Amino acid sequence: MIKNLTFILLILISITSCAQESVIFKTKFKPSKKYKTQVKTTSHTEIEFIADQEIIDRIKSQGIELPMITESETNMATDINTQNLDENGEFSATMEYGKMITTKTISGKTTTEEKPYSGMKILGKYDIQNKFKIDTIIGDKVSQQMRNVLKTTLESVQQAIEFPEKPMKVGESFNSEIPMTIPMEGMNPISVKINMEYLLTEIKNGKAFFDIKQTVGLDISQEQLNVVASGTGTGISEFDIKENYLTKYKSKLPMDMTIKVNEKMTMKMKITTTSEQNVVIE
């Protein structure tokens, strides 16, 4: 009898344990919270020009060493403070941007730039669907065009990752696609899409851990006949289940790109981008 009871208890514990491993993930902001975010992005770009010697000599005459190597690093801090829930199930929020600094080195020459978003404040409200609506943008260096872009971006893209609606267990995965624009000096920007595959590897101490696989492809909705792009990267992320928020993200994405500028010149680029984001919730 005791053996049977022990066996039943073991089965019940096992079932309970398995049930706890199934989680519905949904990113959302909560009232009366502080979200402190630190973001660091770095990139290493190596450009090789395939052209007649005359064109190559002209490029070198401008003091550019070939292959052309560019290093950049951007650091940004943001604080989001949410207020108490009101009678309509909504709550106000203030987004404050710290200094956004970009350091860039091109052919050995280093420059540092503070972006116009530094010191900017955005006042708004989260509705009952947890959608953010902007009321006011405060920033002396922010142009009207930048304000319009910010408003559209923040109100249309509410979360970077769209988790599946059904519960997930360890070993299951899902895909999310994000657009990316690569600015090109003197040329139209390159539009790519990154397919992100998230594999749930562990649920432990109220946190969920994901391995990320990234695959790069051109945005076929754009006419980019002279461009070829490919790349595969990796990453990790950490989701705080109690807070319903992604608190850590780190990735490395190498990318190869070939651009036929004209009949006389082709650019071959190797770009490696690393991203790191850490969020503290109080």
3D structure, described in words:
The chain is mainly beta and about 280 residues long. The protein has two domains: about 1-25 and about 160-275, no CATH class; about 30-45 and about 75-160, no CATH class. About 15% of the residues lie in helices and about 55% in strands. The chain has three helices and 13 strands, in the order H-E-H-E-E-E-E-E-E-H-E-E-E-E-E-E. It has helices spanning about 1-20, 55-60, 145-155; strands spanning about 35-50, 70-80, 90-95, 100-105, 110-115, 120-125, 130-140, 175-180, 190-205, 205-220, 225-240, 245-260, 265-280. Strands 1, 2, 3, 4, 5, 6, 7, 8, 9, 10, 11, 12 and 13 form a 13-stranded antiparallel sheet that branches. The model is unreliable at about 1-20 (pLDDT under 50).
